[in-house]
Amino acid sequence: GGPMLAGRHNGQNISVSTMFEAAGKVESGQMTPEEMHQMEFQACPGCGSCAGLFTANTMNCMTEVLGMGLPGNGTIPAAYTGLRRMLAKKAGAVVMDLVRKDIKPRDIMTLEAFENAIAVDMAIGGSTNTALHLPAIAHEAGVDLSLDEFDQISRKAAYICKMSPGGTYHMQDLDEAGGICAVMKEVSKLGLIHTDAKTVTGTVGDRIKDAKVLNRDVIHSVENAYMHKGGIAVLKGNLAPLGSVIKESAVDPDLLVYEGTAKCYDSEEDAIKAIIGGEIKEGNVVVIRYEGPKGGPGMREMLNPTAVITGMGLKVALLTDGRFSGASRGACVGHISPEAMEGGPIALVHDGDKILIDIPNRKLELEVSDEELAKRKAAWKQPEPKVKTGYLSRYAKLVTSANTGAVMK
After folding, report:
1. What is the tally of helices (H) and strands (E) in the chain?
2. Rounded Cα gap, residues 374 and 31, in angstroms
3. Torsions phi, psi of 97, nearest 5?
4. Contacts with 250 (C-beta within 8 Å, 6 or more apart), sequence order
5. Do 31 and 149 form a contact (C-beta atoms < 8 A)?
6. What is the rounded distance in angstroms from the CA atom of residue 67 to the CA atom of residue 202?
7. Is the pLDDT of residue 300 over 90?
8. Are the C-beta atoms of residues 193 and 184 closer than 8 Å to each other?
9. 369 Cβ partners below 8 Å, 6+ apart?
10. What are the residue ranges of helices labelled H in 70-214?
């Protein structure tokens, strides 16, 4: 495992998300297909998962914070094969030690461990998918972890690493700056790290006591944070009674409060056709629904629509009951719960409705009266499921909404 090294194009570090956005630039005439082709050869130069803080790298960092991985596991690039081999060898020895001491994953992954993970996730501006994966892992570990916990920690946290896609640094920069241990040490100043939590090798306190931040451009101090709150925000309102998630750290300041008119699409494909076809104008809110855990089924990542919107330079917001890639950026609200397939309010939005996204006040409101919503709800019919047989249809029947981590009931 391990992150990939960033690519270089015209003297700038780039990664896979740059490629997705390039497609939007070509669509809107800001880039030639030739240049995009050239970039394709430069964006992903080596082995490993992607170079930015997207979902895989975020979760690898979370594994480290949860105490289940060794220091460096989340950030040492895969291309540094010598270091990766040493880490793997050490992991083998540690596993044998854990067996001898009879320490099991549930001994390590306690509520405190998850709170540590969320605090660091907020500090580095991790992928919104953590708000699905961490509750799902907690569910397996017998720990109750709600979206509200993310919101509470976010309000106390600080955003101190501006990583791609929210910024220009990549995983190799974070690794050189001291890695996740240095981030944890910095976040511990806010009193958000349980230092007595267990890891596979001693306590969190043991692990971070000698950690140092080696590059203050990459890891800011909590006093000098980019935001004095976490990178992920949980929004609620009549459009998302059970919550929704946005990566606030990757939203342009002028879109933090945004009111627009809805354009609704019942699948990702229809939305992309509309965006590329020029149907979406500034001032719209693109609503992509029936892509939640039940509706998808399986909650696909809406990377293409967000990347094309960003690449085309459109000032619009996007709402979905699906999820995003860690590479998505912009005013994109995902995990809207309850989802459309369950008759959640996102199913009741009509084209032309006014929608308010107010990130500082954590609100997501459909500006339609309660009476009108009740009328629409009474008229709503659940559509035919997209998949009617086999495992996926069983999954769709049993899966819960995104706010609980889309686990099986």
Report:
1. 15, 10
2. 47
3. -65, -40
4. 125, 165, 166, 231, 328, 329, 330
5. no
6. 9
7. no
8. yes
9. none
10. 81-101, 105-108, 111-124, 130-140, 147-156, 171-176, 179-187, 204-208
Query: In 10 A of CB 54, how many CB atoms?
Result: 28
Sign of CA dihedral 293, 1, 67, 107: positive
Dist. CA 358–CA 239, nearest whole Å: 12
Mean pLDDT in residue range 368-392: 95
Q: Report residue 88 as tokens.
A: 């793997």
Which pLDDT value is given to residue 95?
A: 98
Q: Which of 164, 244, 325, 401 is catalytic?
A: 325
Tell me whether residue 325 is one of the annotated catalytic residues.
yes
Work out the widest C-alpha separation in the chain, in whole angstroms. 65
Compute the distance between CA of residue 58 and CA of residue 42 in angstroms, rounded to an integer.
Answer: 23
List, in order, residues 6 or more apart from 296 with CB less than 8 Å away: 290, 322, 386, 396
d(CA 352, CA 132): 30
pLDDT tens-place string over residues 219-246: 999 999 999 999 999 999 999 999 999 9
State yes or no: cis peptide before 297, omega within 30 of 0.
yes
DSSP bridge pairs for 364:
357
Token pair for residue 35? 């240049």
Q: Positive or negative, the Cα torsion across 260, 265, 270, 272?
A: positive
